[in-house]
Design goal:
By secondary structure, the chain is mainly β. Helices cover 9% and strands 50% of the residues.
């Protein structure tokens, strides 16, 4: 079974490299699935290969099986863009040969004034968007070196009187000691594959008159367009040398440009760790077209706001509280939106 799993992922890696196109861009639903909720692995360099505990629920579910703790718990808060906050909570435990975890991700956007074509300054009503992801993780160790894992994420989006619900899956594998070299780890993960998301609800109803007929105004329901989930494939490699953790991850995005993520971290015994990350994305090109005022050729027109340098640190507070606890903090770039701050608390038993 182990050989079959590894062979399958090798085929996927080769296929991804052969058909990948850095310039592709498209529209996908539920892009909140791509927002990094925790602080430990910064922008993700090497995370697909090394993430363990509840951090693995986002980076690679196979990493949950590499945790040596009976219980792992995490709570984090990210100050995202436009006063949006992203909260993440998860807990995992061992059940027989499996590690199982549950997690919840929420996005708080606050209240938004309702406006319409007839009332552009507001109707006096407000609505509160609700974006949440509830996930379950199952992981198992196949051998001393190999672990596999599966995430099932239930996505719920709603605002006003419309809502959409979908299910996304992540499938990952981690392998320790690649080529027989201790400290050299590799990981692969397929992320966010599932059925398209489609909005529905009373809010899609409109009062209109059918064109080309004598029928009076009637109530019609708009049929919303479904959109695919933001499918991605991560390939990560990590190497511990001279006390430093070096990591690299290549992300192949189906609806966005591909990303290369690098990281360097150093563990301070009994104190915690420090790290720096860097992300760069492939160029997105605009298809050549002509209009009355401008003549556009192929040109770069999109910059990933997450590209750039990130910093982070973890503080081990076990000696102060008498239990296995650490506090993580990271600063992540967000282009014109400035810098995001992520604060996380991790507890293990």
């Amino acid at each position: 079974m182990k050989k079959q799993i590894i062979t399958t992922f090798v085929i996927i890696v080769i296929s991804s490299l052969l058909i990948g196109q850095n310039s592709r861009m498209g529209s996908a639903s539920s892009t909140q699935l791509l927002v990094v909720p925790s602080a430990k692995h910064l922008s993700g360099g090497g995370a697909a290969a090394t993430a363990t505990g509840m951090d693995a629920a986002f980076w690679n579910p196979a990493g949950l099986a590499n945790s040596e703790n009976n219980i792992d718990a995490i709570f984090s808060n990210r100050q995202y863009i436009a006063d949006i906050t992203n909260s993440f909570f998860g807990v995992a435990t061992a059940i027989g040969e499996y590690k199982m975890g549950l997690n919840v991700r929420t996005f708080n956007m606050g209240d938004i004034d309702e406006t319409t074509v007839w009332y552009p300054d507001g109707t006096g009503q407000v609505f509160t968007p609700n974006f949440s992801v509830i996930g379950a993780t199952f992981a198992r160790r196949l051998s001393d070196n190999t672990t596999v894992g599966l995430n099932t994420n239930v996505i719920r989006e709603s605002f006003g009187r419309v809502a959409a619900t979908g299910v996304a899956y992540d499938l990952g594998v981690q392998y320790k000691g690649l080529l027989g070299r201790e400290g050299l780890d590799v990981g692969f993960v397929l992320k966010n594959f599932g059925s398209p998301m489609k909005y529905d609800g009373e809010g899609l109803g409109v009062i209109a008159t059918a064109t080309g007929s004598d029928r009076p105004e009637e109530y019609y329901k708009v049929d919303a367009q479904p959109f695919d989930l933001p499918f991605a494939f991560d390939m990560g490699l990590s190497y511990n040398v001279a006390g430093a953790d070096l990591g690299v991850t290549y992300t192949s995005n189906y609806y966005a440009t591909d990303e290369l993520k690098l990281s360097v971290g150093y563990v301070l015994d009994g104190l915690g760790s420090v790290g720096v990350g860097f992300q760069t994305s492939g160029a997105a090109q605009e298809i050549e077209h002509h209009d009355d005022d401008h003549d556009h050729g192929d040109e770069d027109w999109y910059t990933n706001p997450s590209d750039g340098v990130s910093f982070g640190a973890s503080l081990d507070v076990s000696r102060f509280v008498g239990m296995n606890m650490s506090v993580d903090y990271s600063m992540l770039p967000m282009g014109d939106f400035g810098t995001n701050s992520v604060l996380a608390l991790r507890i293990a038993f």
